[in-house]
Amino acid sequence: MKPYGKFWQEADRGFYLKIHLERMRQHTRFCRWFKKTFLPSEHLPLVCEIGCGYGVFYPEWFESMGMIYTGVDLSQKAIEYCQANHPGEFYCADVTLWNPRQPLFDLVFSQGTIDNTPEMDRFLRTHARLSRQWIYVTAYRGFFPKLKKHTYTYNKQHQCWYNDISPSQARQALVDEGFTDIGTWPLDGETVIIARREYGH
Ligand SMILES: C[S@@+](CC[C@H](N)C(=O)[O-])C[C@H]1O[C@@H](n2cnc3c(N)ncnc32)[C@H](O)[C@@H]1O
Question: For residue 74, how far is its CA from the centre of ligand 1 (angstroms)?
Answer without folding.
Answer: 7
